[in-house]
Write a structure and sequence with these properties.
The protein has about 625 residues and is of the alpha/beta class. It folds into five domains: about 1-25; about 110-145; about 150-335, P-loop containing nucleotide triphosphate hydrolases (Rossmann fold); about 340-410, Helicase, Ruva Protein, domain 3 (Orthogonal Bundle); about 420-600, Peptidase M41 (Methane Monooxygenase Hydroxylase, Chain G, domain 1, Up-down Bundle), CATH 1.20.58. Helix content is about 50%, strand content about 10%. It has 21 helices and 13 strands. Strands 1-4-3-2-5 form a five-stranded mixed β-sheet, with helices on one face. A five-stranded parallel β-sheet has the order 7-8-9-6-10, sandwiched between helices. A hairpin with a 2-residue loop joins strand 2 (about 50-55) and strand 3 (about 60-70). The radius of gyration is 40 Å and the shape is elongated. The two termini are about 70 Å apart. The structure holds adenosine-5'-diphosphate, magnesium ion (MG) and zinc ion (ZN). Zinc ion binds near residues 487 and 502.
Length: about 625
């Protein structure tokens, strides 16, 4: 609204300026009439012409009594064109009649005030307008030119009154319960003030992208029916030095004036990264100043004023410890990815306005989508609705959801040309993964295997856990590694050589083996120690907390585990070569196989999986 008004005012002023200066130029001046050359000569002969000025063949001048042009306008100022072929003795005629030649410019310069106005006017108007606007925008504090600059961009955090409530957030009930207290406080700050209760000043929402942190912050404001002031910290990174700090100052001033209110700082890690973090080359002044300003502001008010600062980050481990001190973001709330029931609830929210066919079972969809967070599930519903719309269906069916799940989990199909050899090799590779998924006890059930290229992958084997797991046993981890090595093992058994197609698989194996040894104490030789975080961003230790001997031991143990898994993968596939061939053949024929088809082709019963001894 404000901005629209600003531009309207500006446009009016501009127009007025143009009109005024044009009028001023011609004010009090008779219009110029254009007359023919004949008429001009007649006027000279009649002694009516007083002065002329000639520029090239154009002659302008003034007359004693007004002359008339063809349209009937009369004026004492005229203009005419002298034909180039004119062979008259104009000068003699002019002299004879005492016409002043070139005596003065028939368009006298406009008066000084007009000149000044027309050259400085627009600039002056801008300055006045700017002063007026910044005076209007000025809330409190913030001095200096930069302060005004910060304020002129105040729209960035104009108060918002979100309409979302806790009903729009699902699957994270513990978090909602924690934030309920904040809502109660914002609703009735007086009650808390009377009771002298302590309310957190700052609450930090920590969670993976898409888990609903931003949504939650808005829902808190929506539930409490208070204004919501938000900024994304990443906006400051490239800002002019000083702007970030002044915006923060302004943001807090505004929120305090509007209390009870919520301030939301999104992506806090963008500026709140630990100032000692090794990777920061030379540091970033703007970040530092903005961060300091946030700290200063948070120290400078009492939560009983009715302002609560919420912030969101993907990673709390990299935050500057100063942010987490008491009186700042001293309350941290973990926003976890939803479990199966949570996913079903989120799907229910996002399908509220989507017509669903009777066969749609949201619980079943939730079961098939472990690892997806709120944002993914919302996309899933969108994809399914789009698929339904494409097919011209009146309601979204389970098949649409099936397509959407595949697309979301596997990426969309890619069109590339593969030779028959390539396809066969890929078929064997994926069959290797799939077969081991069936053979190794504890492995996740194989839901689908395909050799249709998708995303980055030439083929995909989709395994999904029976339910979400948060705690993994060693057997399960080994099963994962054996399965991951299955593609490579199959290629080796069938062709005797391996290809680069296994790069991703090897990354997985390396990561799991590494974590088993340095993080989960699963190597008897290294012992029950955790060296996680000894390198990388969230550095806990200044230096590697172990010596050279342990370092080589760790390397050796990682290698041992990976090699054991590889041997196991090759052994199992060698023993089940017939099933491997059958699976690859079926894949080459049909491109993709679902769980039932895989079981049918291999003849393996899901419950009667053989239990080979794991190599230890
Ligand atoms: P984050 O800030 O954690 O990255 P967002 O809040 O931006 O995640 O989530 C993006 C969108 O995903 C939300 O606007 C909402 O539509 C959906 N979403 C995410 N989490 C949930 C949830 N727990 N319940 C319902 N919808 C969710
Ligand atoms: Mg967000
Ligand atoms: Zn693979």
């Amino acid at each position: 609204m404000r901005t629209v008004r600003f531009w309207v005012i500006l446009a009016i002023l501009f127009l007025a300026n143009v009109i005024v200066s044009n009028l001023a130029f011609s004010a009090g001046q008779p219009p110029t009439v254009t007359i023919s050359y004949n008429t001009f000569l007649d006027q000279v002969d009649a002694g009516n012409v007083v002065t002329i000025t000639s520029t090239g063949d154009t002659i302008t001048g003034t007359t004693k009594t007004a002359v008339k042009d063809s349209s009937g306008t009369t004026s004492t100022k005229f203009q005419t064109e002298r034909p180039t072929f004119a062979n008259d003795d104009l000068e003699t005629a002019l002299r004879q009649h005492n016409v002043v030649i070139n005596a003065k410019d028939p368009n006298p310069p406009p008066p000084l005030w007009v000149t000044l106005l027309s050259s400085f006017g627009p600039a002056l108007l801008f300055v006045l307008l700017f002063l007026w606007l910044s005076r209007r925008a000025a809330g409190a504090g913030a001095g200096g030119i930069l302060g005004q600059f910060g304020q002129s961009r105040a729209r960035l955090y104009n108060a918002e009154r979100p309409s979302v409530t806790f009903d729009d957030v699902a699957g994270i009930d513990e978090v909602k319960a924690e934030l309920r207290e904040v809502v109660d406080f914002l609703r009735e700050p007086q009650k808390y003030q009377r009771l002298g209760g302590t309310v957190p000043k700052g609450v930090l929402l920590v969670g993976a992208p898409g888990t609903g942190k931003t949504l939650l912050a808005r829902a808190v404001a929506g539930e409490a029916k208070v204004p919501f002031f938000s900024i994304a910290a990443s906006e400051f990174i490239e800002a002019i030095v000083g702007v970030g700090a002044s915006r923060v100052r302004d943001l807090f001033a505004k929120a305090r004036a509007a209390a009870p209110a919520i301030i939301f700082i999104d992506e806090l890690d963008a500026i709140g990264r630990s100032r000692s973090a090794a990777l920061r080359v030379g540091g970033n002044d703007e970040q530092e100043q903005t961060l300091n300003q946030i700290l200063t502001e948070m120290d400078g008010f009492d939560s009983r004023e009715g302002v609560i600062v919420l912030a969101a980050t993907n990673r709390a481990d990299v935050l500057d410890p100063a942010l987490l001190r008491p009186g700042r973001f001293d309350r941290r709330v973990a926003v976890q990815p939803p479990d199966r029931r949570g996913r079903a609830a989120i799907l229910r929210i996002h399908t509220r306005n989507v017509p669903l066919a009777p066969d749609v079972d949201l619980d079943q969809i939730a079961q098939q989508t472990p690892g997806l967070v709120g944002a993914d599930l919302r996309n899933l519903v969108n994809e399914a609705a789009l698929a339904a719309a494409r097919e011209g269906e009146a309601a979204v069916t389970m098949a649409d959801f099936g397509d959407a799940i595949e697309k979301t989990l596997l990426g969309s199909e890619r069109k590339i040309l593969l030779t028959d050899q390539d396809r066969e090799r890929i078929a064997y590779h994926e069959s290797g993964h799939a077969l081991l998924g069936l053979l190794v006890p504890g492995a996740d059930p194989v839901k689908k295997v395909t050799i249709v290229p998708r995303g980055m992958a030439l083929g995909v084997t989709l395994q999904s856990p029976v339910d979400d797991r948060f705690n993994y046993g060693e057997d399960y981890l080994r099963a994962r590694m054996i399965g991951a090595l299955g593609g490579r093992a199959a290629e080796k058994i069938v062709y005797g050589v391996v290809t680069t197609g296994a790069e991703n698989d090897l990354q997985q194996v390396t990561r799991i083996a590494h974590e088993m040894v340095v993080r989960w104490g699963m190597s008897p030789k290294v012992g029950p120690l955790n060296f996680a975080g000894a390198d990388g961003d969230g550095a806990i230790y200044q230096q590697r907390p172990y010596g050279e001997a342990t370092a080589s031991l760790i390397d050796a143990e990682i290698r041992r585990i990976a090699e054991e898994c590889q041997a196991e993968a090759e052994k199992l596939l060698g023993e089940h070569r017939a099933q491997l061939d059958a699976l690859a053949k079926a894949l080459l024929k049909d491109d993709s196989l679902d769980e039932q088809e895989i079981l049918a082709v291999t003849g393996i019963k899901p419950k009667e999986q053989p239990a080979p001894a794991l190599a230890r």
